[in-house]
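quick one before i forget lol
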Amino acid sequence: MKSSAFQPLILIVLGLLWFLKSSALLPDTTTLLALLLAASGIVLLVVDGLTKSTVVTAPMLMYAGVAVYLFDEDKLRLSHMLSLGMILLGLLMLIARSDRIPERRQRRVAGND
């Protein structure tokens, strides 16, 4: 029986992170979190396409990444970040109500081209 590759992969990832952190090549945790949030919003849009769910979730993830970065750099106060996030969320929820935005992405069935 073949064993799982999960443990060796975890060791490789942890070792790589440790090496990058100890050699000062890895950005600080807040910057890394901001980048991951923004990137996950972009990836969500690319993978799932434009749907009622992603039209709200993806921009909010990107906004969260930008807001975390600006907050960490002392360019944005917490009250500003939260109030702007509430406005953006409300606008995106109104946009998602549009009939032009599909409920879900249509899946292609193999062989029906």
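fyi The radius of gyration is 19 Å.
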